Description:
The chain is α+β, with helices and mostly antiparallel strands.
Amino acid sequence: MQNDFANNLEDDWSMKDVLRKCASSAVIVVDSQKKITQVTPEAAACLDFRPEAILGKNIDSLGGELKDVFDQTFATSQSVSAEMKYIRTGGVESRLLVKAAPVCAADGKLSGAIAVVTDLHGVEKFEAHLGRIDRLASVGSLSASMAHEIKNALVAVKTFMDLLLLQNQSDELAGIVSREMTRIDSIVSQILKFSGPAKPVLSPLRIHDVLAHSLHLVQHQMAGKNITLHWTPGATPDWVKGDDYQLKQAFLNLLFNAIEATPADGTITVTTELDAPSPEAANALHDKNPSQLRVTIRDNGVGIPAENLNRVFEPFFTTKPKGTGLGLPITRRIIHEHRGTLSVESEPEKGAAFSVAFPISTNA
């Protein structure tokens, strides 16, 4: 009997009912004479009566709409479901979801029916709370992501503000501070809009200009560790379609990671080159045979353990004591929204290399 009932129930449930199926439900069982034979405590509470008050009685005692569901089940020998209003003691109105199914004996004859009754008020409250939790989670994730980018931008701003004071308002450094403050304003605007990470505004740009500016912003941190930079801009042409602010965010994330991983007196190598993509990258770029520009940022630090290579792009995964685990996921999102790919290679004690590949564009 239970298997027949389960099968009948599954026929009509849609995906939107999955949450409702998970809620505590009340069960009423009637026999072939339409007499109530079993009532669970949940049913008694849901329908606001004592079980002993209706056991053995006809389904007429259940009230109009609930009785109608049973009557339709007996008349059609099919599962019947309905939402209905139910007036409880004191005039309190409840909304009920009723799902009834026939129960057949071994010879195939109808031997009764069973109904599951769910009070939708509790379910709807739960759904509302679930939606609120989801929105709060989105706010938390967005705020954490944006805070990470603001932190990176402020490192450069603080560095150059200090240098401005030492060098008597250098025009060049003042311009850099102005651009970085504009970038901070753009990031904060995303938080205020609460619309999730902004989509990039793509326009033709030279990737070497973006990289040169990003390297300029981190030169003070590199000098502090006496890191040697090998900068080889080999890609010609170097035009891609991109968002200047967002690409700077991505490259700064990669450069800050490289600086942190590189020991004192170490080296960081930044190269660009043109190459043909792998079949996987070609599919990602939605083109059969595009040329692509590859940017590689390589350090000579301790490297990434093999067991962590597949996790470095997971949100909030980090091995740093004070890390947020957001830099690489944010970077990957930015690169993907530029129709690019981001990959990493590493060997223990031999450093790590992050490779970013973009489809080539024109300056038109």
